[in-house]
Amino acid sequence: MIARTWRGVTTAEDADAYVEYLRRTGFASFQKTRGNRGALGLRRILNGRAEFIVVSLWESEEAVRRFAGDRLDRAVFYPQDEQFLIERDEQVDHYEVIHWNQEAAP
After folding, report:
1. Per residue in 36-72, pLDDT tens?
2. Of 6, 45, 58, 61, which one has the greatest count of Cβ atoms within 10 A?
3. Side-chain-facing half-sphere of 48: CA atoms under 13 Å
């Protein structure tokens, strides 16, 4: 399994609106792509900025290509990203998943 990571930053004031936007765009696109195994969205607000890290999980490189196209290292952006993002990674990172615990301990 492959984890694909991306980082972006909004103002703290735009943080909640960006979460909703992510749900309608990136997270929805992940779910619709065959081979997606889930996604994790992280946010922290610090000093007037909201930093986001998105980790999407994929069954194979082929599955990542179905989402991202042939330029696997390039981030995928959506039409209103410019409205929200004050910083963003243009590149993504891919990691081999060596452990994934889907269930919490009782």
Report:
1. 999 999 999 999 999 999 999 999 999 999 999 999 9
2. 58
3. 1
Tokens for 2, please give them: 């492959």
Residue written as token pair 């922290």: 44
Structure tokens of 60?
């194979």
Please name the residues in contact with 3: beta carbons below 8 A apart, sequence gap of 6 or more.
55, 56, 57, 58, 94, 95, 96, 97
- What is the DSSP code string of 49-98? EEEEEEEEEESSHHHHHHHH-S-TTBPP--TTHHHH-SEE-SB-EEEE--
Element (DSSP H or E) covering residue 27: helix 26-32
Q: What amino acid occupies position 96?
A: E
pLDDT average, residue stretch 63-82: 95
